[in-house]
UniProtKB/TrEMBL annotation:
Domain of life the protein comes from: Bacteria
UniProt name for this protein: Peptidase M14
Source organism: Psychroserpens algicola
InterPro entries for the chain: Peptidase_M14 (IPR000834)
Domain Peptidase M14: 42-223
Pfam families, per the entry: Peptidase_M14 (PF00246)
Amino acid sequence: MQPETLKSVFKIHKETSLFGRYIHHDSIAPLLEKLDKKFVVDVVGKSVKACPIFSITFGQGAKKILMWSQMHGNESTTTKAVFDMLNVFSDDNHDIQHILSACTIKIIPILNPDGAKAYTRVNANEVDLNRDAQDLSQPESNVLRSVFDTFKPHYCFNLHGQRTIFSAGCTNNSATVSFLAPAQDQDRSVTATRKIAMEIISKMNDNLQKQIKNQVGIYDDGFNLNCVGDTFQSLSVPTVLFEAGHYANDYMREQTREYIFQSLMVSIGYIANTVIEGKLYQPYFDIPKNDKLFFDIIIRNTNGLDVAIQYHEKLVDGIVKFIPKIEKISNLENYFGHKEVNANGFNVLGENNRLIEEGNEIDFVVINNEKILINL
């Protein structure tokens, strides 16, 4: 599909009941119930707190794709995109029937339901599931591994979200979407398995470059067998990491959601239509690596050092709040702000005109007796 077609398909099929950052079991349960008969919904296990973990399976083809979202409970953008995609496959759309004929797709929409409910990265035992691929110490980790072992996928999609700090290379371009073909060994060898993942990523990048030029990055490929993607890649199953990042002023990740949706459709379509041998992997290396060059706000030209402010997400009474915090007071000439404020040589003060310090949580700053709100 061309970008304009993908945009139109997204607009028609966007799941409007899912919005913002706080997505959990109660958010998706009604959507699972209304899926039609072409989808098989199973409870594949339970979380630490006995919340059900679901899988959704559809398609009849020989090529098997396994994807999972919200392994980290507070990374929900990809879950929204998954349900947008499911709405597409719910329709009797002749343009996608070939995908259903070529592929069988299994999705775990929320692997970490306890973390999703608490809006935390970790599970209820405070374990990062993406560092538990070898120990398999947590019920959620065992659920994923069991599904992997029984389904025997030919491709894996590991769906995540990343912070606003990431740039696409050493540039002032935010990494709106990032990908990775995880390393398969300590030497980060470009193996046949990785080449297949790289080829799929290259095709997704081709589509995104037509819309968010220079805003796609490659995540760090340091090898860690405790990470799920590295483990599955080491088992010779081509695995692709998706990272939903920041688009300008899109703290609800609704625009990024569309780009993840498009990437899912492009990648699945490519798998359905292509015998992927990894021969077209080279463009992967043209995508810049992620760097950490952004803060949410930088106040420049103070009478001293630059001031960096970062939003910290906190669940308060069922709502995700973005709490501004003074992250760094330093010379930040090599960094960028998603928003930048010119202090014109004046002091930057906090409440009661006190000097600000690193670590302060603040809703506003005072510059030349002017109160400037910095919360979202």
